[in-house]
Amino acid sequence: MKVAVLGDEAVARTVDAAGATLADVETADLVLPVGEARFIDVARDGPDVPILPADAALGPYSLPREAIETGVERLLAGDGTSSSHPVFAATTGETTIARGVLDAMLVTSEPARISEYDVAFGGECVNRFRSDGVVVATPLGSRGYARAAGGPVLEPGTGLSVVPVSPFSTQSDTWVAGGDVTLTVARDDGPVELVVDGETVRSIDPHQSVQLTAVDHVDLWRLPSMRWE
């Protein structure tokens, strides 16, 4: 098997010692990015071959650094399965302003300030609430900000998790959406920013909407007999 290792020469030597053939991304059978940032960079492009992340804080989808050699040996022996995960586009109007694989969040940029947000599924508004922000996570990203805000951990194919961040109300809903999600800044209580996969993309104006739509997919290789959190 040809493996493209991205981001770490020491890991490349480990993969080579485990019996895989090192290759570039264009000719590889599998891509092994090291670290979350490197994983996000390659996954956003929706590569045609599976990805096996390493040291990327993705729960059971990421090999711990100390388990890379064992993991690659098991991979070469035919262990594991592939699962498909969405790559989403964030658009305002007709313009795509970002792509992501983990989560997107609208959040006030000033401390101790809240704003008001509308959440819509398929064009139908389901709720308006006041909060520090709102996060939409893919199953792959549902272990991150969304879980910290009280959302569920999702299995592949279940949809998108939508979770208010520090809502003003003590009784606030969370949702699992099966399709597109539209977030709108409903009032002007302070500057609001769009953050995708941990990176600030741009400011979002009052009454402006951001639509999140699955536009591509990425396949991740998972070794089910090697579980970790």
TrEMBL record:
The keyword Transferase applies. Keywords: Kinase, Transferase. One of its GO terms (molecular function) is NAD+ kinase activity. GO terms for biological process: NAD+ metabolic process; NADP+ biosynthetic process. InterPro entries: ATP-NAD_kinase_PpnK-typ_C, NAD/diacylglycerol_kinase_sf. The keyword Membrane does not apply. SUPFAM superfamilies: NAD kinase/diacylglycerol kinase-like. It comes from the Archaea. Pfam families: NAD_kinase_C. PANTHER family: NAD KINASE. This is NAD+ kinase. It comes from Halogranum amylolyticum.
